[in-house]
Amino acid sequence: MLKKITALLIISISFSCGNDKEEYVSIDTYPNAIAAFGNNINLSNLANYANQTIPSYITKSNVGANLITDKGATLGRVLFYDKKLSSNNTISCSSCHQQANAFSDVAVASQGVNGTTGRHSMRLVNNRFAVENKFFWDERAINLETQTTMPIKDHGEMGYSGANGDEAFSGLITKLSAIGYYKELFKFVYGTEEITENKMQLALAQFIKSIQSFDSKYDAGRALAANDGQPFTNFTAQENQGKNLFLTAPVFDATGNRTSGGLGCAGCHAAPEFDIDPNTRNNGIIGTISGIGIDITNTRAPSLRDLVKTDGTTNSPMMHTGVITTLQAAIGHYGTINLAAGNTNLDPRLRPNGFGQQLHLTAPEVNAIIAFLKTLSGTNVYVDSKWSNPFLN
């Protein structure tokens, strides 16, 4: 017999006088949730999503009006890992965004229900700590909430497109509405069993927004420094050199050759969040995974945090084509920017004085910037159970 757990909620009721009164309300038991998740989710003692510690030096946020709640993010976690959100019950959001790889995919193109993705799957870490609030490589989603259900509606990815023989998204709503644990969870979060796309979007976005990483060597050093420009006392000389190269703008001659200064990485990936400047344009990579045609609309990028695991291995291929697989190759790409025919969207910061930038990197500079980028990797994001698969099977 399944053990029944009764959760007690505190509901705050406001009166016209402005005083609040707390009333304890017993809500229904959740046998279907217990059967599906066991002890992985405890509805009477939810994981902390809403009040995680954020360093004082982190000031950027695109969280918007959909604030993270423990209940909403818990539902979002279930939706994120549930393969029932795909038309043939084989693909979930987590299939392409894996916790073991900082919520990215080791494959260049992720597997969907009807083929593979056209672009590499981005890491999801720290996506809310940014000025940029649009999503996908080409920023076609106006916010994270809109983004969350677009892969579900994609014919190739999760298959509820309403075209090419697919059911419409309404078919998914009908499917989920018949599942016991969703009846319980939607009532738990929203007060009613009714499932809507908007409710799904809110919950999924809250879970994704909760995925954060601030336990890196960089964070330990930054907490002891007044600003990023100071030498970090926990860094090696090489790591501090790499930090300076990252932060310092290069000086170019009339034909785009660096004559002094650093690499200027912070011009597009500003510390301490290391998110992407929303005004960034194409970075010089214009290929496609298929090898057919060019793609110059890629202007977004994930945070540079957790590019690699702490052992130095990459979490996934980099760039929208997955064409770059090492930090050395990534730095080398920016070291020599070619003005490719047809790329009318190249970021002006990469073509000083009208020429593709030539950084003329030395081996010690390359090694230093790699050493610094490795300091941006934490450990908790890979192992924290609140971001893990909640399903028993």
Task: Give a written overview of the molecule.
It is a single chain. This protein has helices at 31-37, 70-81, 93-96, 144-149, 169-177, 180-190, 197-210, 217-222, 237-247, 327-335, 363-374, 380-383; strands at residues 8-14, 20-26, 111-112, 115-116, 250-252, 258-261. It has 393 residues and is mainly alpha-helical. It folds into three domains: 1-44, no CATH class; 46-212, Orthogonal Bundle (Cytochrome Bc1 Complex, Chain D, domain 2), CATH 1.10.760; 213-381, Orthogonal Bundle (Cytochrome Bc1 Complex, Chain D, domain 2), CATH 1.10.760. The strands form three sheets. It has a two-stranded antiparallel sheet. It has a two-stranded antiparallel sheet with strand order 3-4. A hairpin with a 5-residue loop joins strand 1 (8-14) and strand 2. The longest helix is centred in the middle third of the chain and has 14 residues, at 197-210.
Write the layout of secondary structure elements.
Layout: E1 8-14, E2 20-26, H1 31-37, H2 70-81, H3 93-96, E3 111-112, E4 115-116, H4 144-149, H5 169-177, H6 180-190, H7 197-210, H8 217-222, H9 237-247, E5 250-252, E6 258-261, H10 327-335, H11 363-374, H12 380-383
Antiparallel strand pairs: 1-2, 3-4, 5-6
Helix pairs in contact: 1-6, 2-7, 9-11, 10-11
